[in-house]
Design brief:
This protein is of the alpha/beta class. It folds into two domains: 6-93 and 175-316, Rossmann fold, CATH 3.40.50; 105-173, no CATH class. 31% of the residues lie in helices and 22% in strands. The protein contains eleven helices and twelve strands. The chain has helices at residues 48-55, 83-89, 111-122, 127-140, 146-149, 159-171, 189-206, 217-223, 241-246, 251-258, 298-302, and strands at 6-17, 20-32, 37-41, 64-73, 76-77, 94-97, 177-181, 209-214, 226-231, 234-240, 308-309, 315-316. An eight-stranded mixed beta sheet has the order 6-7-8-3-9-10-12-11, sandwiched between helices. It has a four-stranded antiparallel beta sheet with strand order 2-1-4-5, covered by helices on one side. Helix 3 crosses helix 4. The chain is globular and about 65 Å long. The mean pLDDT is 94. Bound molecules: adenosine-5'-triphosphate (ATP) and magnesium ion. Adenosine-5'-triphosphate (ATP) binds at residues 15, 17, 24, 42, 44-50, 60, 63-64, 215, 280.
Length: 330
């Protein structure tokens, strides 16, 4: 088995709020191997973005801080690394694509200049070579007539094209790890599918690892090898995509699968999980999911549960996991 390229262990992230320091990511651990695509899923507010921003030490501080844990990339802990060393890694070995392409793109500069600038920051090359690389990556993301578009400003592109340009910029230095946080959520459905196809083909071609953040399990099924499910700042289950869909081990995962629009069956949404996730300053005692869990017993409300290894490459945080027969996706 290949060694992990990214290994997050016991990550704790806190924000200073009106309620004092609140923990929004609480002991998160997972790893990604070279070339692997890991989906990080969970409802809004579960801590997916904060986790992914932590990798590159981009959690806004203040009000945030990484209060514990380690994030090892290629053997080196990124937590607490000096800013200059982080800058050398960002955009080079690790690149990010965000939900909103304008988070990566600067409206005041042309697409070509922005991509060339990333290349020149990390590679010893001439202006001309950097521009050639920009043409190359714009071609890769299937921007038609790439050379002629170098002089375009972001606002001259459609939403889908802008997201492609942001992906091109992320690819400019051949990253080993691409972190994509809801990269297609802001796009309409057809464009979403095109951008996902593009990511899949780029992954096949270049073999970079991808941390893919999404609330959409359908996208996970399409794109990912493994999944980590987050709830209320914690990982509740990790498994291969196949195992997760076939036989979820955590009631929350079962709920997410049941709430998935069933493809091919009139596409209507089935039972959403009743209730809402807790706020980080009022996490329930015991299992954090117990107030919404149809299988909760008294012990679930009292005792905290650890993430336990169950079989090959699977982890689950549920004391009843062994006795429940949960339903997978149809
Ligand atoms: N700058 C901030 N200040 C205070 N709290 C924050 C800040 N950023 C995030 N949080 C809190 O951290 C928690 C996790 O947020 P995060 O954005 O990681 O969720 P998410 O899983 O990415 O949700 P979504 O699916 O909506 O993107 C939430 O409770 C959020 O309110
Ligand atoms: Mg998010």
């Amino acid at each position: 088995m290949a060694e992990a390229m990214l290994e997050i262990a016991d990550l704790v992230v806190e924000f200073l709020t009106d309620y004092g320091w609140v923990r929004v990511v609480d002991g998160v651990s997972f790893s990604i191997r070279p070339g692997e695509t890991l989906g990080l899923v969970g409802e809004s507010g579960s801590g997916k973005t904060v986790t992914s921003l932590s990798v590159m030490q981009l959690v806004p501080s203040p009000p945030g801080r990484i209060a514990g844990g380690s994030i090892r990339f290629a053997g080196r802990d990124l937590v607490g690394l000096p800013e200059a060393e982080l800058e050398a890694i960002r955009g080079d070995d690790i690149a990010m694509v965000f939900q909103e392409s304008m988070t990566s793109l600067n409206p005041a500069f042309t697409i070509g200049d922005q991509i060339a600038e990333v290349v020149r920051r990390h590679r010893a090359c001439s202006r001309r070579e950097a521009r050639e690389r920009a043409v190359e990556v714009l071609d890769l993301v299937q921007i038609p007539d790439a050379r002629a578009r170098l002089g375009a400003f972001p606002h001259e592109f459609s939403g889908g094209m802008r997201q492609r340009a942001a992906i091109a910029m992320a690819l400019a230095c051949d990253p080993k790890l691409l972190i994509a946080d809801e990269p297609t959520t802001a796009l309409d459905v057809t464009v979403q599918a095109q951008v996902l196809d593009l990511l899949r083909s780029l992954q096949e071609r270049f073999g970079m690892a991808i941390l893919f953040v999404t609330h959409n399990l359908g996208v996970v099924a399409d794109l990912c090898d493994r999944v980590a499910v987050m709830y209320a700042g914690r990982i509740v289950e990790t498994a291969s995509v196949f195992d997760l869909f076939e036989s979820p081990r955590h009631p929350y995962t079962e709920g997410l699968l049941q709430a998935m629009p069933q493809l091919g069956e009139r596409g209507q949404r089935l039972a959403a999980i009743p209730g809402t996730p807790p706020m980080p300053w009022q996490m329930p005692q015991g299992c954090r999911f117990h107030p919404r869990c149809p299988y909760a017993e008294t012990a679930c409300t009292e005792r905290d549960v650890r993430l336990e290894a169950v079989g090959q490459e699977r982890h689950v945080r549920c004391r009843r996991s062994g006795e429940l027969a949960l339903a997978g996706a149809e």
